[in-house]
Design brief:
Blueprint: H1 6-10, H2 13-42, E1 44-45, E2 48-49, H3 51-74
Antiparallel strand pairs: 1-2
Helix pairs in contact: 2-3
Length: 77
Amino acid sequence: MAPKTDLEKSHSKASNFKLTMIAFLGAIGFAAVWIGVALILKGNFNNWNFTPFALPIAIGGGVLLLLSYFLIARFTR
């Protein structure tokens, strides 16, 4: 079996899967930040108080977003 070329290594299934998961993590983090911000601004929705959940959702989303940023910055094919 011949050794793989650089192009074959860079576009392997494992490499594509890692990049997809990092992007998915960033998308979840981005959505969570905006959901948290919306809940903070709304405050009270149909007599349910979502404020205790809003700040942890926004902070958790921000952490995921930053993590995905650093992972994408370090990602090499």
